[in-house]
Specification:
With 154 residues, this protein is an alpha+beta fold. The chain contains five helices and six strands. The chain has a single domain, classed as Holliday junction resolvase RusA (60s Ribosomal Protein L30, Chain: A), CATH 3.30.1330.70. The strands form two sheets. A four-stranded mixed beta sheet has the order 1-6-4-5, with helices on both faces.
Amino acid sequence: MRAAAAHAEGLAASLALLPPRTRWQVIGEALDIADMLRLEVPGAVVSKNRALRFSGERVFRTAESRAYQETASWQARAAMRGREPLAGRLAAVLVVRVPDLRRGLDLDNASKAPLDGFRGIVYRDDRQIDVLVVRRIVAPGQPATLLAAVEEIG
């Protein structure tokens, strides 16, 4: 398990320097998995810190949060191409690309919205994920986006 986590961390660190098409080739070659699920969710990731609002005793999700999670779900459906959700133990690599650091983003909360959006589509439940690597890449002049790769590891 530690070897898989170290391998995934090294892979995430190298992704920032590659153009999108090459990026996915490297992921597939590095992990030696041809059918690894890869997807991209355009737009700035919505942190779960910003996803909830309180009104008295009521708690509700913001429209921004709902829209981002729905976008993640649609991208996941497109990537799955009608296949059943993955059923085994999983490793996931999330690379959050931002144009600058002006808007603070708490990475542990940034992973929750896309992972929730993938639930029931890419995998049955996010409790299947045993290895999770989340990396922020600052890419000036590039649009904000999330790159995700998910694979079964057992």
